[in-house]
Design a protein that fits this description.
Elements lengths: L12 H12 L8 H22 L3 E2 L2 E2 L1 H5 L1 H20 L4 H28 L6 H26 L4 H28 L2 H4 L5 H4 L5 H9 L2 H14 L13 H13 L2 H20 L6 H16 L3
Antiparallel strand pairs: 1-2
Length: 304
């Protein structure tokens, strides 16, 4: 039997945000339920495709859909989840449901843009920090931003309120992804449900790597030479798949020595602070604001 952890069941951050956002707009939490379902469906649509594109065989200690049922079925199921997410909202038949659907489709398009950027960056020798942040804002921030506005929109909130809540969600997403990037290199596989050094195996241009390359100095320059040598092998991820654990540990140590780990930790805290500050621009019950702050706190201290 595979090991179990809190990572096995997922975190349900997006649906939680949708329900809280309905309350932030003064509505009952159940008003946000269709939005909660929709954002979770889109999130799982993205995971099915993401696992296939990255070649990940396990997620949360379970075999991924493409591994069990094949790539074709994984793509089709993912597409069906996206279609169902829109149906869940449109079946409400209200003006506010139409507004919510528009936000969801826009967020999904940005999520897809971010995934495309992520894949293209794997084959590039250099990616700067702003490019990485823009990619992660699309890939992770957009759907979290939608999640924390969709319930409010279903509850009748105006666009200004929804947009301000999206500011919180967008920066929360950047904090979330920064922590995810740290876990992708240094995370405990038991907690994350992924292989050790998973992002290094896939040659991800994640924040710790990009920040380390931008830092300058001996460790940064040595890391740049190593990654350039990888890229010269026809740009194929498989070329480094058989490296031993010592090689990945050495690369992780170089990233840390160059300052990539510490910079990314600080960036997570900066984005967290920006997200929380946005909450004070929305008039909402104090208890709801406290829950949104607590959820942001959870994002930056999680281990999986």
């Amino acid at each position: 039997m595979p090991p179990t952890s809190a990572a096995d069941g997922g975190k349900a951050v997006r649906p939680a945000l949708a329900l809280l956002s309905a309350e932030a707009a003064g509505a009952a939490p159940e008003v946000g339920l269709p939005g909660a379902v929709a954002v979770e469906l889109v999130h799982n649509f993205s995971l099915l495709h993401d696992d296939l594109m990255d070649g990940d065989e396990q997620r949360r200690h379970r075999d991924t859909v493409w591994k069990v049922h094949g790539p074709d079925q994984a793509v089709l199921v993912g597409d069906a989840l996206f279609a169902l997410a829109n149906e869940v909202l449109l079946e409400l038949g209200t003006v506010d449901a139409g507004r919510a659907t528009r936000r969801l489709t826009t967020a999904t398009r940005r999520l897809i843009d971010g995934q495309a950027q992520d894949i293209s960056y794997e084959q590039r020798g250099r990616v700067n920090v702003q490019e990485c942040l823009d990619m992660e804002g699309n890939k992770t921030g957009a759907l979290l931003a939608c999640s924390v506005s969709i319930g409010a929109v279903l509850g009748g909130a105006d666009d200004r309120t929804a947009d301000t809540l999206e500011t919180y969600g967008y920066h929360l997403g950047l904090a979330f992804q920064a922590v995810d990037d740290l876990l992708g290199i240094w995370g405990d596989p038991v907690a994350t449900g992924k292989r050790p050094w998973s992002d290094l195996r896939q040659r991800k241009k994640s924040l710790p790597v990009v920040a380390a390359l931008a830092a300058g100095g001996p460790a940064s320059e040595r890391l740049a030479r190593i990654l350039a040598a990888d890229a010269s092998h026809d740009g194929k991820t498989d070329d480094i798949a058989d490296f031993d654990e010592e090689e990945f540990a050495s690369r992780a140590a170089l990233i840390e020595e160059a300052g990539g780990r510490e910079w990314t930790s600080e960036e997570a805290r900066r984005q967290h602070a920006t997200a929380v500050a946005a909450l004070h621009e929305v008039d909402m019950p104090a208890a709801v604001r406290a829950q949104l702050v607590a959820l942001a706190d959870f994002v930056v201290v999680r281990e999986g």
